[in-house]
Amino acid sequence: MNPLARLGQATLGSLAAVGRVTIFAWDTLTHLLRPPIYLREVMISLFQIGWLSLPVVGLTAVFTGGALALQIYAGGARFNAEAVVPQIVAIGMVRELGPVLVGLMIAARVTSSIAAEIATMKVTEQIDALTTLSTNPMKYLTLPRVLAATLVVPALVAVGDVIGIFGGYAVATGTLGFNPATYIRNTVDFLELSDIVSSLIKGAVFGFIASLMGCYFGMHSGRGAQGVGKATKGSVEAAAVLILAANFVLTGIFFSV
Amino acid sequence: MISLRDVHKAFGENQVLRGVDLEIPLGTSTVIIGGSGTGKSVMLKAVLGLVAPDRGKITLDGEDVTKADRDAFLARFGMLFQGGALFDSLTVWQNVAFRLLRGSLKRPKSEARKVALEKLRRVGLTADVADRYPAELSGGMQKRVGLARAIAAEPEIIFFDEPTTGLDPIMAGVINDLIREIVTEMGATAMTITHDMTSVRAIADNVAMLHGGRIRWTGPVDDMDRCDDPYVDQFIHGRAEGPIEAIR
């Protein structure tokens, strides 16, 4: 096959994949308007995605906040701007690192888990069994996970933001000689409501993307253990890339001047 | 009556069904036999709407299954899957009562559990398995739970996909007897896919052989041994030599 034909085939394949994901997302969203909504499944997903992700989110945020404080202090020292550590840690965590790191952690932890679980259900005919038991798999498996992730990831982002700022605070006051009260006052004074709102909106979008990719790849997995493995790998790759791309777009929308 | 007319289905280049014509009278037990990969499961899934045929028509009591109200249509069916297809995250009784805990057949939880325990008893399982998870059960027990789930809502039509595959001969005999009893007792229509000739003789009123994507032969089970079709003869006697090519 000549290179031009190969390029054309790859382009068509990519566009078809975008189309399939878009239809899948639309189908998921329309189930929101069509009862029943399985609240028990939503609650289970809220617990699994939200509560059980807290440790990894907290640890990621605290270390990132601490490292950020050290970097800003060292970098700022080159032009006598060490004092900006509280403000930059706050803005860096809330606007960018908090949502992105939580999104990526959710992609690693939740997307992979959803994709593997649903793909295994497909391979073992559990999805077919759901249908024969008059239960729509999109309604029973996809919607609760997507809904729960969209609702709970913003909360995780908020927690991550706070813990990340605390990490910076702990390092700055513990080793860099900052006054605790001044550090907190500078953080609070500098942050604006729009920073926090943008952080939470990013969280909702990233939660939607991460769960949707898990469900999509799980539902479209191939056969056998290899199919499950491919679905899991593909879901995490797609979720991570889409989260970073969405972050770029959202940052542009919220903060472009 | 379940009727399949000129049903075709391909997966990519692989043409699985090439014009299946079959009628399954209500209240009878029909067993579909045929080699591996001949499309028996695809045919069964096409009736349930899990696989969309490329061509042809499938009707239930004269109504096109693709145009039927999906919930009402599926409520008439129960299915035992080859591997059981039990939901790992639910306990045994919740699996059995799945249909009774949600949707149009929803009942109070206590009542649904009572029905589940009764169906488990019907398939020879005691109440102590009810709160276990499927992974804690043996293969034979999982099949029985799958069978209990298939009959939990007392469907009119029950499909069995290779119900005895992977079971030892004694457990296979137990499952065969259960299927026969349940079908007779409930007056249900049964459609079973199997390669196991012992199962065929135990379960079937009628037999249909699928080969080359078409129904090769169909008739009462008593006529099967007297059938002069060389394909059926080779298959039911398990001969390596004959018109059906065996890959060695």
What does it look like?
The complex is a heterodimer of chains A (257) and B (248). With 257 residues, chain A is mainly alpha-helical. Chain A has one domain. Chain A has 9 helices and no strands. In chain A, helix 3 (54-76) packs antiparallel against helix 4, helix 4 packs parallel to helix 8 and helix 4 (85-123) packs antiparallel against helix 9 (224-255). The radius of gyration of chain A is 21 Å and the shape is elongated. The mean pLDDT of chain A is 94. With 248 residues, chain B is α/β, with parallel strands linked by helices. Helices cover 33% and strands 25% of the residues of chain B. In chain B, the strands form 2 sheets. A 6-stranded mixed sheet of chain B has the order 6-7-8-3-9-10. The longest helix of chain B has 18 residues, at 169-186. In chain B, 43% of the residues are buried. The model of chain B has no long low-confidence stretch (mean pLDDT 89). The A-B interface holds A 36, 38, 121, 124-126, 128-129, 131-135 and B 45, 48-50, 70-71, 74-75, 77-79, 81-83, 85-88, 98-99, 102-105, 149.
What would the keywords be for this entry?
heterodimer; A: 257 residues; mainly alpha; B: 248 residues; 4-stranded antiparallel β-sheet; 9 helices; 33% helix; globular
